[in-house]
Amino acid sequence: MVHSVRFVWAVVAFIIAAVMIGAGIAQRTVFQGPAETSQTIQTDQSTAYTMIDGAVLGNLPGAQTLRVDGDANVFVSYGRTEDMRAWLSDAEYTSVTMGDQNTVETSVVEPTVESTPADSTTATDATGGTDATGTADTTTGTQTAGARSPVGSDLWLDEFEQTGTLTQTLQLPADMSVLVASDGQAPAPSTITVTWPVDNSTPWAGPLIVGGGVVLLIGLVLYVLGIRHVRRSRRPRRKGLPLPVTEPISIADGEDKGMISESTRRRGTGRTRGALGSGRRALIALPALGVSAALFAGCSADAWPQIAASDSPSPSATVIVPEGQFPPAVTEAQAQRIVSKISQTVAQADAAMDATAAETRLTGPALAERKTNYTLRAAIPDRPALPAIPAEPVQITLPQTTNAWPRTVMTVVESADASAPTTTIMMMTQDDPWSEYRASYVGNLEASTNLPELAAPYVGATQVPPDSSFLVMPPNELATAYADLINNGQNSASWSKFDTANDLLLPAIEENKKKRTDELNQTGAGTAEISFTASAGPTDPIALATLDTGAIVAVNVYESDTAKPTNADAVIKLDNNPAVKALTGVDQSATGFTTTYSDQIFFYVPSQGSDDPIRLLGYRSSLLEAKVSP
């Protein structure tokens, strides 16, 4: 009865093992779903641009693989949905959105603003005024929509180009969209496929297969034990007989020796049969182990349950964005790309002394000083170029929080050149969705400068209005107050409002005044005099708020010196001043000369009610112009 129970349990184990292994294999084969799902978008090729809304891309969870099939050039970019719509606002484009029934819908969107021909469009600088030379900035703003290439726009977070078919894996949030185009003129590619991964993992396949193998092995063991018990129960049983009296055995007796040898041989044969039986049982168990090992080896990581890590993440600082605040104008990665483009373009313009090329990435005082430098370098062979704008590393990015234009971004970039380490601070502006960011203010930070606490790049800062009363001094009064400080020193009414003890620009200005006076005394020999005056430059200030409700303000100040002869028969010669000679085109004058320097100055202005003074953060001072006095 015992052996029959073993057979029953063995059969039960075999059945359970077969079910478990079969279920595990079925999950990995016939019952396993597809690894991805796709959505094909077909357009009628009636427009040059196709915008795929973020809701379409985020229709299913996971990364999105975008495939665009075209006959020629294929362009794909992604960025904020609102920025992309602004860029397309003057163009007809195909919009791909999600419908009410969770279906993909396509429609043609007509222009909402009037486009302006590229050859007749002018734009002012970022502050809405004129550039530092007092002339209007004629950099092209908008272009005719049908002739505008999407390549290289500063609005895109990233872009891709390919001939024929372009495939790119993305993972965009709901507020991001994708732009598909060819070259801005030809129709956009019409066949677009979005593919999402599908979770087809089978976490119980591995445990079922391995568990089935274990149960199968148990069944085999029960089966072998049952067979062994049956074989033992079928052997003949002998009754016990009284044992004869033991007698000494003579080892010399040949027959006895033979009998002993035969008995020993039989006992040895019995042991051999037992050993062979164990070998057979081992061979019977091997298939079960082999099947389990083979099935176990075929199970990948997604065939097992994923146990989450038990370690709790350490808490991090929480940044609360004010309710209703607009998003920052750029992301940190976007700002790095823009700085790199500005650096590259300005470096090429510097090498070629091409003011037109520089104008595509500079404006305001930053452009004005470059134009003057190109003029001087063309006339004076040994005239040095202005310091280059470094491309990386970008240490600080402070974008304006806005959903409109113009937009402002402040960056601090360290020079990668170990031989000439500098830290450059810039204010970059974008006039409209179709324009590129241009640096309007560029200065150098001193090594000892401590910047105020700034918001994180993903939070951004508000732009402070020029007439703000929330600062100890409105930004539009700052340049005039500092100019008065230069003119009158400690007698200025603004002296106590500035941290003059740590101001490095004031001593530099005084040193330049002394140098210019000494040069005039050497050439004029008492027959000439020089006067100095400072005034606010024509470019409006740019101010971004700090976390302590203060602001970083960039202003423009002009320093002018006028040299005139004191004797009617005397003239002022420019033998020792080739720069003024190159800018005026004359080598002497009976009426004198006026030379103007442009200062791009960055200040930290505390909030209203603070006892802290206004601190100089950085500056750039350079020769701007020279002319013959009237």
The average pLDDT value, as a whole number, equals 82
Strand fraction band?
15-25%
Total number of helices: 11
Helix-residue proportion: 25-40%
* Tally of distinct domains: 4
Secondary-structure class: alpha+beta
Shape: elongated
Helix-strand pattern: HEEHEHEEEEEHHHHHEEEEHHEEEEHEEE
For the biggest sheet, the summary is: 9 strands, antiparallel
Distance between the termini: 130 Å
Regions with pLDDT < 50 over 5+ consecutive residues? 117-144, 251-279, 281-286
Quaternary state of this entry equals: single chain
How many beta-strand runs?
A: 19
Rg from alpha-carbon coordinates: 43 Å
Write the layout of secondary structure elements.
Elements: H1 2-28, E1 36-42, E2 49-52, H2 54-57, E3 64-80, H3 81-87, E4 93-98, E5 104-109, E6 158-170, E7 176-181, E8 191-197, H4 205-233, H5 254-297, H6 332-352, H7 355-359, H8 364-379, E9 394-399, E10 407-414, E11 423-430, E12 438-445, H9 475-488, H10 505-524, E13 528-536, E14 542-545, E15 551-565, E16 572-573, H11 578-584, E17 588-589, E18 593-605, E19 615-628
Parallel strand pairs: 2-4
Antiparallel strand pairs: 1-8, 2-7, 3-6, 3-7, 3-8, 4-5, 9-10, 10-11, 11-12, 12-19, 13-15, 14-15, 15-18, 16-17, 18-19
